[in-house]
TrEMBL record:
Annotated residues for binding of ATP: T21, A22, N23, G165, G166, T167, E212, R213, L214, K215, G292, G293, A294, L295
A GO term for molecular function: ATP binding
GO BP, one annotated term: cell morphogenesis
Oligomer status and interactors: Forms polymers.
Protein name: Cell shape-determining protein MreB
InterPro entries assigned: ATPase_NBD, MreB, MreB_MamK-like
The organism's place on the tree of life at top rank: Bacteria
Any GO CC annotation of this UniProt entry: cytoplasm
Cleaved signal peptide residues: none
Subcellular location, record wording: Cytoplasm
Keyword list, A-Z: ATP-binding, Cell shape, Cytoplasm, Nucleotide-binding
Function according to Swiss-Prot or TrEMBL: Forms membrane-associated dynamic filaments that are essential for cell shape determination. Acts by regulating cell wall synthesis and cell elongation, and thus cell shape. A feedback loop between cell geometry and MreB localization may maintain elongated cell shape by targeting cell wall growth to regions of negative cell wall curvature.
Family: Belongs to the FtsA/MreB family.
Length: 362
């Protein structure tokens, strides 16, 4: 990096933001992951003031008193609470750059492939709360592939499946372009909700944090690993009182099976849409899983068995999207090849005029 570039980076840093449904991660090419906070905001109900953001707000989820309202500003990869999203982005970026004397940063942010232009506009507004000098957007799947270390500029096709909190992004890339891409609103939150619903059918109520813990401790795809039952606390709905019970891993696996099946079917559909020559080369190149869902035991094996393509998990799968975004921003050649060339505001305005919901990823 030139001296001028170093000076500019010191006072106007380049950062990649993964504004995810479950976590918001900020990454710098020079310093790595600067911060990772849960995408959760807590309001005081009396005056609607924000009282906690990130990990502090997540710890209130499911256990806050009536005067506190806990929200997840993003659902399915898109913004559902604009004010909360603005507060979340501004706070996380401020915390990430707190030790710097800075001017407006240059920001690259990721959006799901299923987001409409209007939903992308909402993300753009939220990112603006951080006061960026320049903001660029890339599809999450592309950032995940770069963050996983895949050579997407070469002639060998690379396939990535990023399983986030709200969406799963699937893409096949070659020569710096997208051959096929698909996004479905199935992710970690889907698994949590399915576990809650499955236990409720047995008249036992649990909260979102307990469901997430069960997913992490006893979740799996494919064949059950054979772990001991896991003890959880909640509400015995039959006796109408607090209670404890042991949850067998097969119950958790059965609850998650439908979501896992939909992800596998989506991966298969992408392989069907890929030209035969490139699909054949994926037998050698394989599929790489990123995102928190990649850590579910047996997931890579299940995808490999269902698609007949060898599947592996990326190193540090949780940080791949933010890391990829930061690396794209740090590489002018890569940024020029991957960023959208259409004027986003023009496209957004046109979508309003003609009443269409145009996909950003296409």
């Amino acid at each position: 990096m030139s001296l001028a570039g170093s000076v500019r980076a010191t006072f106007s840093p380049d950062i990649g933001i993964d504004l995810g449904t479950a976590n918001t991660v900020v990454y710098s090419h020079d310093e790595g992951v600067l911060i990772s906070e849960p995408s959760v905001v807590a309001y005081r109900t009396s005056d609607d003031a924000v009282v906690a953001i990130g990990q502090a707000a997540k710890e209130l989820d499911g256990r806050a008193p009536g005067r506190i309202r806990v929200v997840h500003p993003l659902r399915g990869g898109t913004i559902s609470d604009f004010r909360g999203a603005h507060a979340l982005v501004k706070t996380v970026v401020d915390r990430a750059l707190a030790s710097r004397t800075r001017i407006a940063p240059r920001v690259i942010a990721c959006v799901p492939g299923c987001a409409t232009d209007i939903e992308c506009k909402a993300v753009e507004e939220a990112i603006r709360a951080a006061g960026p000098r320049i903001t660029t957007f890339v599809p999450q799947a592309v950032a995940a592939a770069v963050g996983a270390g895949l050579d997407i500029m070469g002639t060998t096709p690379r396939m990535v499946i990023d399983i986030g909190g709200g969406t799963t992004e699937i893409a096949v890339l070659v020569l710096g372009g997208v051959v096929a891409m698909h996004s479905i609103k199935i992710g970690g939150d889907t698994f949590d909700e399915a576990i809650v619903a499955r236990l409720r059918r047995e008249y036992f109520g649990i909260g979102p944090l307990t469901a997430e813990r069960l997913k992490i401790e006893r979740g799996y795809a494919g064949r059950a690993p054979g772990r001991e039952p896991y003890s959880v606390s909640g509400t015995n709905m039959a006796a109408l009182r607090p209670g404890k019970r042991f949850v067998d891993e097969t119950l958790v696996g059965e609850a998650m099976a439908d979501g896992i099946d939909k992800i596998a079917r989506a991966a298969w559909s992408i392989l069907e849409a890929t030209p035969p020559d490139l699909a054949g080369e994926l037998l050698e190149a394989g599929i790489v899983l990123t995102g928190g869902g990649a850590l579910i035991p047996g997931f890579a094996g299940e995808i490999g068995a269902r698609t007949n393509v060898p599947t592996t998990v990326a190193d540090d799968p949780l940080g791949c999207v933010a890391r990829g975004a930061g690396e794209i921003l740090a590489s002018p050649g890569l940024l020029e090849r991957l960023r959208p060339h259409a004027d986003r505001l023009t496209r957004w305005y046109q979508s309003l005029r003609i009443g269409m919901r145009e996909s950003y990823s296409r």
